[in-house]
């Protein structure tokens, strides 16, 4: 294998290992889908790095002088390219606040490097000028990263992801500075006559591995693209493996250097490693992902898919348990979990079903009690009606008695007249007979009229006790108000045990009041309530006066209980007001008087439904309104207004 | 004798007229009617009425109030005042007596009794009590 123009050496092996790593990273970076400007510059950085390592490996192998000279020149050009790209990346990374400075820096660096090449030759691999310029350039790049990071932090007021990345790149650059310092030591030592650092390979090579990997890690850490688990594992395995492979020949060389057949053994070792490195890399890059896929990733993916399905609501999913390790356990546990989830869900469904029946039962019960309540309410309303009828009975009795008296009286008188008529006829007194017959006819009219009056009272009593049909007909409100006033008043007179009670009634009915479309029966009930309340109020006031007088108070002006009833027509509606000079309504209960079951009467005397029902009849039933105006211990006035237009 | 009937029931008029037809024809009785206490009071002065028959329960001024006012003007009869009411309760009776009523009759009116008593009201002049 040994020829005159190239030789295999351990340095070349290490470089090949580095190149392999570089290519692996480059391949991975190139395969990433994100292709922004930063990524492109970074990829080109690795591309130039790979080219440099290729060229460097070649230059290490080649000993043929002219070719070696070209290769060294190539090395220097590629290193320059790397530095330029590095500087460019430093300026452009994320954003570039120093656009002009970038070009100036690139230019200055190029110029200085050109000068150093001019002074020391472009094919010189021990060029101190180049080392110096490159070191200066690296320090400059560090400064650029640092300035950009500071600027970013200053703008945001805190450490951001970008500033962290810039600082990481800064430290990576510092690492390169260290490498270059070590590399620079030997030419410097030669110049200054210091002892050379012969083992620099052992330091520089691993440092280069670390730096290369570190650069890739930083970039991948901050790129929006997520790094797959496979890539991480491959990188983690490949990097130390290649370091070991690169350094082993160097170590071996130390062991075999004293052997008599060193050159031959060395040759074999180097060749072996030259094949071992790409082979190992290939095995790691190709084999490891396959292994990971089959034993880790695809079972994990299956479980992940299962999780997604469970999340989507499919609890019947079962994951195949293909491997017997932690992943297998996970799959098994996942299956158990879905099973218990399934059970819980079934229980929940069952519970929901029973809940529904329970809700249905409760609803039924509630409906039942609501029906009961409604029935009770109807009974109460009926009771109220009967109570008011009771209050009316005495009045009705009187009102019936009155026409009946007339009927009796006129009938009696008529009998007498008839007798007289017979006498006058037999006496032949025709004019007297004619007069008598006229009187008789008149009396018959009175009898009929009174009979009808009695029937009409009975009819309205029956009407009152019957459920209202709510049928509206044109009604003379004056007549209705008067009729019920009489009924109520006489009822009070007859039923009242406290007969010391005289009330003055004043009516002021507007003449020619238009008939109102109302349900007379319902309005009758309202009137009955209003009158009864008015009488009750004046009665109460009189009782208070009596009690006061009995307690020896100064005699005041005599109290005359009075109830005023008036009607009038106001703006398209008929207004009826019932006023009394009774006890009035205290401020505290004024807004309660229309509430159902509210009563000031002693328990058992009032249902508390009278005003509430009246209010409903006027407002809901007839679209009218009912208002109260009261002064405690002075008067109360209830006003109802019913619109003249028939309420729909 | 001149009799004033006070009642808000207008049919009282034909009834009284017919019941006292003979007496009226014979000129023994003259009937006058008022439909309210106020009307009665307005009608009373210089009417020569010797007997007033008044209902108690009337709209407006009550019969008892009318009685009180009449007795304020004429503490004694004439005119004699007889109360007629459907409610023959003790209280009304006492009240009427207190105010100086000459009699208290309950409705329905017993005309036979009333006619019998007519003489009493006129003859027993200046006597008190029922």
UniProtKB/TrEMBL annotation, chain A:
CDD domains: HAMP, HisKA. One of its GO terms (cellular component) is membrane. The chain crosses the membrane at residues 12-30, 42-64, 70-90, 102-120, 132-151, 172-193, 199-221, 233-256, 268-288. It catalyses: ATP + protein L-histidine = ADP + protein N-phospho-L-histidine. Keywords: Coiled coil, Kinase, Membrane, Phosphoprotein, Transferase, Transmembrane, Transmembrane helix. One of its GO terms (molecular function) is phosphorelay sensor kinase activity. Its EC number is 2.7.13.3. It comes from Runella aurantiaca. Residues 294-346 form the HAMP domain. It is an enzyme of class 2 (transferase). Its main location: membrane. Residues 395-646 form the Histidine kinase domain. Gene3D superfamilies: 1.10.287.130, 6.10.340.10, Histidine kinase-like ATPase, C-terminal domain. It is found in: Membrane. Residues 341-386 form a coiled coil. It comes from the Bacteria. InterPro entries: HAMP_dom (IPR003660), HATPase_C_sf (IPR036890), HATPase_dom (IPR003594), His_kinase_dom (IPR005467), HisK_dim/P_dom (IPR003661), HisK_dim/P_sf (IPR036097), Sig_transdc_His_kin-like_C (IPR004358). This is histidine kinase. It holds the Pfam family HAMP.
TrEMBL record, chain B:
Signal peptide: none annotated. The modification 4-aspartylphosphate is found at residue 55. Pfam families: Response_reg. SUPFAM superfamilies: CheY-like. One of its GO terms (biological process) is phosphorelay signal transduction system. Residues 2-122 form the Response regulatory domain. Keywords: Phosphoprotein. InterPro entries: Bact_response_regulator, CheY-like_superfamily, Sig_transdc_resp-reg_receiver. Gene3D superfamilies: 3.40.50.2300. PANTHER family: RESPONSE REGULATORY DOMAIN-CONTAINING PROTEIN, STRESS RESPONSE REGULATOR PROTEIN 1. This is Response regulator.
């Amino acid at each position: 294998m040994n020829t005159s123009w190239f030789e295999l050496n351990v340095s070349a092996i290490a470089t090949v290992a580095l190149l392999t790593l570089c290519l692996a990273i480059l391949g991975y970076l190139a395969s990433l889908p994100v292709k922004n400007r930063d990524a492109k510059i970074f990829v080109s950085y690795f591309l130039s790095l790979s080219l440099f390592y290729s060229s460097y490996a070649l230059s290490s192998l080649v000993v043929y002088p002219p070719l070696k000279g070209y290769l060294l020149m190539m090395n220097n050009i590629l290193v320059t390219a790397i530095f330029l790209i590095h500087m460019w990346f430093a300026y452009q990374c994320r954003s570039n606040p120093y656009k002009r400075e970038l070009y100036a820096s690139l230019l200055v660096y190029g110029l200085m490097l050109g000068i150093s090449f001019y002074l020391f030759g472009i094919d010189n691999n021990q060029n101190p000028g180049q080392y110096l310029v490159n070191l200066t350039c690296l320090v400059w790049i560090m400064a650029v990263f640092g300035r950009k990071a500071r600027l970013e932090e200053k703008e945001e007021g805190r450490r951001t992801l970008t500033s962290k990345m810039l600082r990481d790149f800064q430290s990576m650059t510092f690492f390169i500075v260290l490498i270059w310092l070590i590399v620079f030591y030997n030419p410097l030592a030669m110049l200054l006559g210091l002892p050379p650092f012969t083992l620099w390979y052992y330091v520089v090579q691993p440092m280069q591995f670390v730096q290369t990997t570190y650069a890739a890690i930083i970039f991948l850490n901050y790129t929006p693209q997520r790094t797959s688990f496979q890539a991480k594992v491959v990188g983690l395995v490949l990097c130390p493996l290649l370091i070991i492979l690169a350094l082993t020949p160097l170590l071996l060389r130390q062991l075999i250097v004293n052997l008599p057949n060193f050159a031959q053994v060395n040759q074999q070792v180097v060749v072996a490693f030259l094949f071992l490195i790409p082979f190992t890399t290939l095995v790691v890059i190709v084999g490891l992902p396959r292994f990971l896929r089959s034993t880790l990733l695809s079972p994990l993916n299956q479980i992940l898919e299962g999780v997604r399905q469970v999340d989507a609501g499919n609890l019947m999913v079962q994951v195949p348990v293909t491997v017997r390790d932690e992943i297998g356990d996970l799959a098994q546990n996942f299956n158990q979990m879905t099973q218990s989830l399934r059970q819980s869900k079934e229980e929940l469904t069952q519970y929901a079903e029973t809940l529904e029946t329970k809700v249905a039962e409760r609803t039924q019960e509630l409906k039942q009690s609501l029906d009961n309540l409604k029935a009770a309410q109807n009974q109460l309303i009926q009771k109220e009606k009967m109570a008011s009828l009771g209050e009316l009975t005495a009045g009705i009795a009187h009102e019936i008695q009155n026409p009946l008296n007339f009927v009796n009286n006129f009938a009696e008188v008529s009998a007498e007249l008839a007798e007289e008529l017979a006498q006058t006829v037999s006496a032949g007194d025709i004019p007297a007979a004619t007069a008598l017959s006229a009187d008789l006819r008149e009396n018959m009219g009175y009898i009929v009229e009174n009979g009808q009056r009695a029937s009409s009272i009975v009819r309205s009593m029956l009407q009152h006790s019957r459920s209202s049909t709510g049928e509206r007909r044109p009604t003379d409100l004056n007549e209705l108000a008067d009729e019920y006033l009489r009924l109520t008043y006489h009822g009070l007179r007859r039923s009242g045990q406290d007969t010391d009670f005289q009330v003055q009634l004043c009516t002021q009915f507007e003449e020619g009041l238009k008939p109102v479309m109302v349900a007379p029966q319902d309005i009758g009930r309202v009137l009955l309530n209003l009158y009864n309340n008015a009488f009750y109020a004046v009665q109460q006031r009189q009782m208070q006066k009596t009690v006061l007088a009995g307690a020896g108070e100064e005699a005041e002006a005599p109290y005359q209980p009075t109830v005023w009833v008036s009607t009038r027509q106001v703006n398209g509606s008929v207004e009826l007001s019932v006023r009394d000079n009774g006890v009035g309504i205290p401020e505290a209960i004024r807004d309660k008087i229309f509430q159902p079951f509210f009563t000031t009467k002693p328990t058992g005397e009032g249902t508390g439904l009278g005003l509430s029902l009246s209010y409903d009849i006027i407002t809901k039933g007839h679209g009218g309104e009912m208002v109260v105006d009261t002064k405690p211990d002075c008067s109360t006035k209830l006003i109802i207004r019913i619109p003249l237009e028939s309420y729909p | 004798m001149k009799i004033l009937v006070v009642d808000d029931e207008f049919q009282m008029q034909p009834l009284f007229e017919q019941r006292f037809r003979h007496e009226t024809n014979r000129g023994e009785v003259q009937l006058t009617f008022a439909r309210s206490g106020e009307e009665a009071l307005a009608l009373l002065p210089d009417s020569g009425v010797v007997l007033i028959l008044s209902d108690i329960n009337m709209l407006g001024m009550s019969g008892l109030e009318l009685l009180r006012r009449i007795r304020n003007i004429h503490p004694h009869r004439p005119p004699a005042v007889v109360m007629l009411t459907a409610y023959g309760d003790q209280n009304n009776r006492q009240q009427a007596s207190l105010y100086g009523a000459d009699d208290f009759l309950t409705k329905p009116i017993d005309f036979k009794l009333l006619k019998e008593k007519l003489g009493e009201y006129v003859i027993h002049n200046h006597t008190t009590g029922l």
